[in-house]
Write a structure and sequence with these properties.
Elements (H helix, E strand, L loop, with lengths): L4 E3 L18 E6 L9 E5 L7 E3 L20 E8 L5 E2 L15 E5 L1 H4 L14 E2 L1 H9 L4 E4 L13 H8 L3 E4 L9 E6 L10 E3 L3 E4 L10 H38 L6 H25 L6 E4 L3 E4 L1 H4 L10
Helix pairs in contact: 2-3, 4-5
């Protein structure tokens, strides 16, 4: 079963405000079991930008791509959730300190819109935290193919020229708006945000999900096997790099021990040298364990930190003799 999976979409009809001038979401039951009809049947009226939705370049650019022109993999991609305090206009400094592994991912911004309840409120607010153009450029510099926000629009609610939309869409970066990011913590995720498959649409509602990266693997990828292969590669590389200086150190220590043997008054230096030899030999045992690493085991620490456990990973099964 998947690990933490967050639904960060708005519930149409109960959450989220319509953009001024857009038709509000409306659902009408034409048939109803409660009224004695043989089934329930609803009709819907909504804007393509209702609730949680994706914007495509055709939203602002003449002859721009529509959502149905994108392959489905553009809607399933690694993402980084960024905690973005402050506002109302977010600048590029909110990405200061972003780790290198966040580059090339979709970037989603968790702001006061989520923590204050503005993201889910049904009344439009002029106080939404939004992105500034400089932040949009910084997202593109980091290779983001999608930018998301917990507001009905990435741009300033008072804007009439929509610079953030234009910057991103001209670079073919999709825009995901209308998120509720109150629950998930900042960090790496798999983002799933498939829109309705509408013909030639500039936008469409989407169901947006965030799957904790510690618990997902891309389709067709055995994450455990991939980690095992990575551990084996790490072991081989470490042994290769360590072996030559380790052997040189061991040889020099043994030569020095031979030179000190029998010399009077050098008992203390010999004891220290013997301690050094013991540690060098211990390193040789560790590299031997790395060579025999065939099972990926980890030690768990608070804060979800893990390291490879060489002792358990290289321990022979109980019915086998140690190597």
């Amino acid at each position: 079963m998947p690990g933490p999976l967050w639904d960060v979409s708005l519930r149409l009809g109960r959450e989220g405000a319509a953009y001024p001038g857009d038709p509000p979401y409306w659902r009408h039951e034409q048939q109803s079991l409660e009224r004695g009809d043989p089934f329930t049947l609803s009709s819907l009226c909504l804007c393509a930008h209702s609730g949680t939705h994706l914007d495509a370049p055709a939203h602002f650019l003449p002859h721009g791509r529509t959502l149905d022109a994108y392959p489905p993999q553009r809607f399933v991609l690694p993402a980084w959730l960024v905690e973005a305090p402050g506002g109302p206009t977010l600048g590029p400094e909110v990405l200061d300190g972003l780790p290198p592994q966040a580059q090339g991912r979709a970037l989603l911004f968790k702001t006061a819109n989520s923590t204050r309840g503005l993201a889910t409120a049904t009344t439009w607010s002029p106080d939404y935290v939004h992105l500034g153009p400089e932040l949009a450029r910084r997202c593109l510099d980091l290779g983001a193919e999608l930018v998301g926000l917990d507001a009905p629009s990435l741009d300033n609610p008072a804007s009439s020229d929509y610079p953030v939309h234009r910057l991103l869409l001209e670079a073919d970066a999709l825009i995901l708006e209308g998120l509720n990011l109150a629950a998930p913590a900042p960090g790496p995720y798999l983002l799933i945000c498939a829109p309705l498959k509408l013909d030639a649409a500039e936008a469409a509602p989407a169901r947006a999900l965030l799957w904790s990266e510690d618990d997902w693997s891309p389709p067709g990828l055995d994450l455990g096997q991939t980690r095992l292969q990575a551990a084996r590669a790490m072991a081989g590389a470490a042994c290769h790099e360590m072996n030559q200086p380790l052997q040189a150190l061991l040889s020099q220590c043994e030569l020095l021990a031979d030179e000190l043997e029998g010399l009077a008054g050098l008992e203390a230096p010999r004891r220290r040298l013997q301690a050094m030899l013991d540690q060098v030999r211990r390193l040789a045992v560790i590299t031997g364990r790395l060579h025999r690493l065939v099972r990926y085991k980890t030690i768990e620490y608070p804060g979800r930190q893990r390291i490879v456990d060489l002792e358990r990973a290289t321990r022979p099964p109980e019915d086998e003799e140690p190597a």
